[in-house]
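As a representative case, the lines below give one protein's residues and fold tokens.
***
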Amino acid sequence: MPEYSLTTSDKLKARHASETRFRWMGRIAIFISLGFLVFMFAVITVRGIGALSQTRILLKINFDEQLIDPQKSRDPQQLAIANYKPLLTKAMGQLFPQVTDRRDKRRLNRLLSSGASFELAEKVTKDPDLIGTTQDIWITAASDVDLFIKGKTDNNVEEKLRRLKNKEVNWIKQLEEYGKIKKKFNTAFFTKGDSREPEMSGILGAMIGSFFSLLVCFIVSFPLGVLTAIYLEEFAKKSFLTNVIEVNINNLAAVPSIVFGLLGLSIFLGVMNLPRSTPLVGGLVLALMTLPTIIIAARASLRSVPNTIREAALGLGASKVQTTFHHIVPLAMPGMLTGTLLGMAGALGETAPLLMIGMVAFIVDVPQGITDIATSLPVQIFLWADSPEKGFVERTSAAILVLLIFLVAMNLTAVILRKKLEKKW
């Protein structure tokens, strides 16, 4: 007996030690996963935080009426297309009167963004009273100047290999001494669409395109998915046909997203002739991709409602339809909404199906509706990541950070809704 008791005790100790090791292995795995996640966010944040600031140069602009609006009509269309470049050239010449060579003047003016004229046009169009006055205006600097000010260029590289030559570097340093060049908050990143120039590019157009696409996706997929789940779970009799439908729904949830893009390309564009590169088509493709997820989540929510509720409603004289829509569906709705939000969060990060329907086009204007040509945030990130311009590196990381924030927010909303609305029996 003593030997048997000692053996049992040793076995218990060994089992407890094994359980302890297993728990620590799980904790270590969680810590490693969280570590990689924190590292990823840290790297993206460090690389993208620079996009929140933009270098600007302070110029004294004389809004000469003879150049801008000689007819004194103050027509917004004429003000928008007026030639503002001489105003910028004159202002830069006043800062550097010693620069007289024509080639040097061109290089001096290239310190400003190529979109600086459009900035002045936008200001004058909004406020025509600027015409005839002289104002101190902060003008966006070129991307190379911005990278230099942020310390992201190597000045030790041989001059012929640098985009900024020694003369341009000296001019920038003079501007710093005069207090005429500073980093300011980059509002354009959140208020403008895409651009060929990194310093003028923004994510507003892509964000609006993603919003419209998700709006169409929700309008189409949520009612179809919920009604399909209700029919299969509450009304359809078990048969070979319903089994085939269930198997296909589960299989569709695992189909690669690019297959849905090919389906949208062939059906929505090839057969239905819907407008290409629009949130309407993008939303329909994302709806097809999201439907299986919503149906599966909705059916699981309906199954979670106790049968006693169904029996009680039927016992009190309610019809099958009344029992389903007055009692079962309201109780299952929190789970349905959670599944829908999770499915749409996955759709928000999709790129491949949108590439197939042409939403990879270069779009400058911000879309105003679901039938306007647009792109989406993941596709915008793809385009910027493929650009050779170094200035797009930090904007790519910043756009990724914005996308991750939206994804985390949607998943967090789903969790909060589930916690707030779920019923416990």
